[in-house]
């Protein structure tokens, strides 16, 4: 398979691939949805300084992915990189493991954004009817309805209108500016700078160091879906140049918007206890209400956020289906021959889209059974995402960043010192994420506050292992990509 092989037209331009990547990360919305939680896990110190720490880590991650995607621009992304970099003896098994981990991370991200959209819509209802007590099945129905509508968009619209991602990108930046300026100018409860920059809160029972590390999950969520552009590489123009730019730009724009948003909201924050007590609507809605003093303005901001969330979920469905399709193309799981088909009229992987939707539908059913289990499912996505990035990063270190794999003529190339540092930081951060993001949030541990992410991880490992035994070991061939002057690995 050639590095730029494509089963459809290259219809996504450079701006659209950047827009799609940022629509998924939507860093300031990610910060908004978890700001109050972050403050409880280390205070404003974790939120702001943690954002600086995670941005350095994700810049290193983006640089690692950009370097590889400038040479191997394919829909498989990191699992393709892993196949090419691994020793021949372990190539199939390692790339399979990386691909399954990546696929599970996108399932988690899809479920997380879908439930956030449902929570936003419920929050709008609560603004105007404070006595309304939403039930789990209310969230379930909205979750499934939005997921289905955006499935239809992916099947029949998005391939013919890739500019929808451009609209989403413009909307999110416009909304960011409007909300930021309004909340700052209207707030009558300006917090002092000492509160914003120096507040440390640790009521978790963990030592301060562990509290800070577990609290990094909030700023890390700003970069969920960072690999989006990689999986659309075979549908965009000049992917060897546009994909690296999109990945790097997502981090830069994400940091600028999320960091400034967090600072603004912390200054505008009035009654923090009231924010934490807002059990029936998203805490950020209470912050908007305190800052503006207007239900109308708060509703407008919530509708803006919901619209952005729909653009994000639309892009997530598109991207995750391409990863599923790439795995099926390499015969990674049962029914691969069906899932790998591109519908000739629609020019989209219909069965990959339907398969992903089926999994997300089942995740929604889990929400009805146990919100604790569902929260563990959506919380594990960041861990799995960074773990999937660590596979090729570790193998680059193993290969001593040889020019056999990192061509000196590649459009995006790090110098030796930066390359070694970036790859090492990706691996170290993945290990930290894997350990500390699965810690219980508070001590002592009970059944109600236990972090069941480790259980979800175990179940995913079990499913991936069973599939390998009954199908993958015999049939998964791993990708083979021609690069350079026809050399093939």
From TrEMBL:
Main location: membrane
Subcellular location: Membrane
GO cellular component: membrane
Keyword vocabulary terms for this entry: Membrane, Transmembrane, Transmembrane helix, Transport
GO MF, one annotated term: transmembrane transporter activity
Coiled coil stretches, renumbered: none
The keyword Transmembrane appears for this protein: yes
Lipid bilayer topology: Multi-pass membrane protein
Segments traversing the membrane: 12-29, 35-60, 94-116, 136-157, 169-187, 207-226, 247-269, 296-316, 350-370, 376-398, 418-438, 450-470
Protein name as annotated: Amino acid/polyamine transporter I
Protein source organism: Talaromyces proteolyticus
